[in-house]
Design a protein that fits this description.
By secondary structure, the chain is an alpha/beta fold. Helices cover 29% and strands 26% of the residues. Strand 3, helix 3 and strand 4 form a beta-alpha-beta unit.
């Protein structure tokens, strides 16, 4: 099975159903499929060969979704790049994946031209003649997409996913979310972010409706939830934190909301409790994932009460386990590196054999590769997984190792705290001192923060420094940019 079949099958089953809402635009499945076919025809007229790369440099829009499916229909592989990307990084991506075509829009054309180095460009709005639906080209082991990581250290890496990888991930996720054609999913996530991209792919697979929204203003989102009768709402922690500050948001306002998902980083326990209170009809799925396999784990909603700090179990059809530095599985309660096994694991990093060899290693069987995530985890006695921290983020202080996430969860228990990040600051005596950087409502003091943490954490985990800011820096994907803050503190 190939990814473009998601759209083609839904267009066959639900031709007149609304597939996509974006601003004033409302596209049916038949319309979306015709647009993708026309785009594919244009790529073929321009000489796109099987497996060649098409870089899509657009805002969240119907044209982005059309370009994704159109590239696949033409037999190519796509890479969606965040519209905020600067010319030098875009140029690197274009050269690194040897792009055949660059797709952009008038607002971004100047940056695109500066970066393109003569690569042919397609600029929206698309005006292609109607084209008969192309026949499938290739097999499910062909590359479907390359997702470039944010590149917090060094150049961005191109995570390479085949059609089989994408289909496996989408099938697993839609299974545990119980996705259905009646769903209406509201997404403000960038389509360049795999969490956002998969909303489009999974909606097409289920025959559901995707509502793309550019604004993250809480009042706009609440209105969209109401007016579009949204049933599914994917969140990241920073967006959840903003929503939870809305005073007009009251319990039970959206009885039609069937599920809420979260990934990118684990939600603090306090935010989980508040979301469940405000959206009592919605099943909240706390999840963990990384680009190299899309999704790793999910916590069944019925387990939230018992273990709210857990990110759950392996997604259906996959395996997740924790190993020591020699690759041996560890006992419950012991911290080690999370390893992922399954058909959703990437094939490697594009044109980077060394990085691929570090991430993909021999698994239980000699013929397979498993993904070493670089993330530290532990399990409880029943096999549920708990995120401890990134290997590179662990702070060594007073001879102890401190996970920033553990301290941040305690900070979020303070109702005044909107955003929080914990970093290590060089200290001649301690090795590293613990620093909390907080965006909070007026009135909260450094003494309040330290006293609150001291009542809940061991001495060596308590911040000795507290800095207040109006807001914390974010990555392109909406995560708090802890590494940027750590670099500032170094």
């Amino acid at each position: 099975m190939r990814v473009e079949s998601f759209l083609l099958e839904s267009a066959r089953r639900f031709p007149g159903k609304t597939a996509l809402v974006a601003g004033a635009a409302r596209l049916t499945y038949a319309h979306l499929a015709r647009g993708a076919a026309a785009f594919a025809g244009e790529l073929r007229r321009r000489g796109l060969e099987r497996g060649e790369r098409v870089v899509i440099f657009l805002q969240n829009s119907p044209e982005t979704v059309i370009a994704v499916f159109g590239t696949l229909l033409a037999g190519g592989a796509f890479s969606v790049v965040n519209p905020g990307t600067k010319a030098d990084k875009l140029s690197y991506i274009l050269n690194h994946c040897t792009a055949r075509v660059l797709v952009t829009e008038p607002r971004l054309a100047a940056v695109a031209r500066k970066a393109s180095n003569g690569i042919p460009m397609l600029v929206t709005p698309f005006e292609f003649p109607d084209t008969a639906m192309p026949e499938f080209r290739g097999i499910d082991q062909d590359v479907a997409m390359i997702v470039y990581t944010s590149g917090s250290t060094g150049s961005p890496k191109g995570v390479t996913m085949t059609h089989a990888n994408v289909v496996a991930a989408a099938t697993s996720i839609t299974t545990y979310l119980e996705s259905r054609a009646e769903d209406v999913v509201l997404s403000v996530l960038p389509l360049a972010f795999d969490y956002g991209l998969y909303q489009a792919l999974m909606c097409a697979k289920a025959g559901a409706t995707l509502v793309l929204e550019k604004s993250t203003f809480p009042a706009v989102l609440l209105e969209k939830l109401r007016s579009e009768r949204v049933t599914g709402f994917p969140l990241v922690p920073t967006l959840a934190a903003v929503l939870l500050q809305m005073r007009q948001l009251e319990p039970g306002m959206f009885p039609g909301l069937r599920y809420i998902t979260n990934t990118a980083a684990a939600l603090p326990r306090a935010h989980i409790e508040r979301l469940r209170e405000l959206f009592p009809s919605a099943r909240l799925s706390s999840m963990y994932g990384l680009t190299e396999c899309k999704r790793c784990t999910y916590l069944p909603p019925e387990e939230l009460e018992r273990r709210p700090e857990s990110v759950g179990i392996a997604i259906p059809g996959t395996e997740a386990y924790v190993v020591d530095e020699e690759g041996r599985r560890v006992a419950p309660g012991v911290t080690g590196e999370l390893v992922i096994r399954g058909a959703h694991v990437m094939k490697g990093y594009w044109n980077d054999e060394a990085a691929t060899a570090r991430a993909l290693r021999t698994g239980p069987y000699p013929w397979e590769k498993v993904l070493y995530t670089g993330d530290l985890f532990r399990t409880d006695g029943e096999g549920f997984l708990y995120f401890v921290g990134r290997k590179d983020d662990i702070i060594k202080t007073r001879g102890e190792k401190v996970s920033p996430k553990e301290v941040e969860n305690v900070l979020y228990e303070l109702p005044q705290v909107r955003e929080a990040a914990v970093v290590g600051v060089p200290d001649a005596v301690l090795g590293s001192a613990i620093k909390a950087i907080v965006a909070a409502e007026p009135g909260l003091t450094e003494r309040d923060v330290i006293r609150h943490c001291a009542a809940r954490l061991e001495d060596f985990r308590v911040p000795t420094l507290v800095e207040f800011r109006p807001h914390l820096p974010k990555s392109e994907n909406g995560k708090i940019a802890r590494r940027e803050l750590a670099a500032e503190a170094a």
